[in-house]
Amino acid sequence: MKRTLLVINPASGGGKGKKIGAATAELLHKRNLKFHQILENSAASTNHSLNTELSKGDIERIVLVGGDGSVHLIIQKLALTEIQLIVIPAGTGNDFVRAQNLPLNNPAEILNHSFSKPAEAIDLGFAGGEYFADILSTGFDSVVNERANRIKFIRGPMKYNVAIALELPIFKPKIYRFTVDGEPFESKAMLIAVANGSSYGGGMQVCPSASITDGLFDVMILAPVSKIEFLKVFPKVFSGKHITHPAVTIRRCREITIEADAIAYGDGERVGPLPITAKVVPKALLTWHRNP
């Protein structure tokens, strides 16, 4: 008999994960659904427990309570398998659930939607030996991530605001070499986002037209602008209106290679230094989504 796994990250969202996980378990009990629960205090322990359960070969679906970091961990296991993924958002960003066009604050509605219709296959990106669900990025935001990861005295989203304030005055654009579906070119840039989903950072619509079902990346390249202009443009990313700025270029492709002395992040997780090649993996993950 096929089984369901409930995987809870209790630390997601500054501790919201534990509470939302308990509520989700209760909802599954009300459905008379038998499930095995994984609730660990570290990614390493979660990874070990996942490997143990998946090795038994009888898992039909995983119900994940967590944020985008937890999604990133899980998709490494589920990509190109027949195991279905239901995500109950409990993180600070929850951009994967945004890409699915599912509610951010209603676990019951997500479960009702997911159990009432068949799972559908969505695309993933693959780069640096890892899958990513939403955005692979390099440039200013990766520098900010690097700085934020070194800040220990502040927790939560505020540390990223502090990292932006520290990095922006000293940040310098770089020359990047690209190969986009076989076409090479160079461009000086402040930020590059390779988008499978449309947003990152908790709803920043960096590539508002990106779709997790079209078999293509949307690639946003921000050419150099002054620090003052950057601060003017940056707030527009939450609505997607930044794409009308003359310094912003968006291209669509199935594969992209980026070369420079820089670091790449995928779904907010450190992937590693460039050069890096990202490819769309069509229909790689079984999950649920709503058409916009």
Calculate the mean pLDDT score and round it.
93
Beta content? 25-35%
**Shape by Cα distribution:** globular
Write the element-wise H/E pattern from the N-terminal end onward: EHEHEHEHHEEEHHEEEEHEEEEE
Portion of residues in helices?
A: 25-40%
> What is the C-alpha radius of gyration, as a whole number of Å?
19 Å
Number of DSSP E strands: 16
Give me the CATH architecture of the largest domain, please: Sandwich
Name of the level-1 CATH class of the largest domain: Mainly Beta
Largest sheet: 6 strands, antiparallel
Low-confidence parts, pLDDT < 50 over ≥5 residues?
none
User: Structural class given helices, strands, pairing?
Assistant: alpha+beta
Our count of domains comes out at: 2
Distance between the termini: 35 Å
Would you kindly provide a written description of the structure presented here, covering whatever features stand out?
- The protein has 292 residues and is of the alpha+beta class.
- It folds into 2 domains: 3-117, 3-Layer(aba) Sandwich (Rossmann fold); 131-282, Tumour Suppressor Smad4.
- The chain has helices at 12-30, 43-54, 68-78, 95-99, 107-116, 140-150, 158-167, 227-233; strands at 3-8, 35-39, 59-66, 84-89, 120-127, 130-132, 135-139, 174-180, 183-189, 191-195, 217-222, 248-253, 255-259, 263-266, 269-273, 276-287.
- The strands form 3 sheets. Strands 6-5-16-13-8-9 form a 6-stranded antiparallel β-sheet, covered by helices on one side. Strands 12-11-10-7-14-15 form a 6-stranded antiparallel β-sheet. The chain has a 4-stranded parallel β-sheet with strand order 2-1-3-4, sandwiched between helices.
- A hairpin with a 2-residue loop joins strand 5 (120-127) and strand 6.
- The longest helix is centred in the first third of the chain and has 19 residues, at 12-30.
- The model has no long low-confidence stretch (mean pLDDT 93).
